[in-house]
Amino acid sequence: MSAGRAQAAGVTDGAAGAERADIGVIGGSGFYSFLDEVTEVTVDTPYGAPSDSLFLGDLGGRRVAFLPRHGRGHHLPPHRINYRANLWALRSLGVRQVLAPCAVGGLQPEYGPGTLLVPDQLVDRTKGRLQTFYDGVPRPDGTQSNVVHVTFADPYCPVGRGVALATAREHGWEAVDGGTMCVIEGPRFSTRAESRWHAAQGWSVVGMTGHPEAILARELEMCLTSIALVTDLDAGAEVGEGVSHAEVLAVFAQNIGRLRDVLFDVVARLPKERDCLCASALAGQDPGIELP
Ligand SMILES: [Zn+2]
């Protein structure tokens, strides 16, 4: 796909069926690497390049676009991910529902390694990330958005959350229904004092990529469902040496297979027609730019 075409209008209907998808999965290469047939599509956006190519495949009768959040080889730290380009690129391929699996630390002792949690709230503790498409800054093609304020009281798609929870339970994984994901800037982990403070607020898990992914999806009227796998207890909730990256990777490796199984079933079960409020997040407001 040429950069110009993606920038101009996304992929038009019927132009290239192989380059369309209706569900997006933002996650590691472990999720799609074994699919039989994968089409690699390069998309450019008015906000720059996404983390990597998008990998399109068929799953449970649905067309899915996988995007490695940190790039192939995991070279992008959380604070350098081009979140705007990632969400814009997915939408330009036709994606309207996004699944966002991520690794998190447990802030409460009951959420130990291997816990699956489908959050219903988030708290932004990041610093200086670009978190809106509607900043009124001219884009490369000279167009410029209006200022838009979207409702974000409930940051995640209620329908996607329900499907994720029911599917995990059918797989024998008693996922935690709801909870607050605290998103820190990273790439360092929290100090014990920070972690105890986060826990004392009653927040459930801590991660580094959940913001601004969810708000950017909402700004493009896409559904987003976060599926958080706890890989460690955060510094304030454990009594050992603190979180190590090796520990995180080991727990992730142990659980990637069953997380993938759950995720693929969730893809198949997401509704084909949306009746959630995500789909009309911009109702009554003029973004001033054409969405892809
Ligand atoms: Zn929705």
TrEMBL record:
Pathway: Purine metabolism; purine nucleoside salvage
Gene Ontology CC annotations of this record: cytosol
Binding-site positions, phosphate: S29, R69, H70, T209
UniProt-recorded name of the protein: Purine nucleoside phosphorylase
Quaternary structure note: Homohexamer. Dimer of a homotrimer.
Family: Belongs to the PNP/MTAP phosphorylase family. MTAP subfamily.
GO term, biological process aspect, one: purine ribonucleoside salvage
GO MF terms, alphabetically ordered: S-methyl-5-thioadenosine phosphorylase activity
Lineage: Bacteria, Bacillati, Actinomycetota, Actinomycetes, Kitasatosporales
Residues noted as binding substrate in the record, renumbered to the chain: M208, D232, L233, D234
Coiled-coil spans in chain: none
Residues marked Important for substrate specificity (site): S190, H245
Keywords, ordered alphabetically: Glycosyltransferase, Purine salvage, Transferase
Reaction equations catalysed: a purine D-ribonucleoside + phosphate = a purine nucleobase + alpha-D-ribose 1-phosphate
E.C. no: 2.4.2.1
InterPro entries xref list: MTAP (IPR010044), Nucleoside_phosphorylase_d (IPR000845), Nucleoside_phosphorylase_sf (IPR035994)
Domain Nucleoside phosphorylase: 22-267
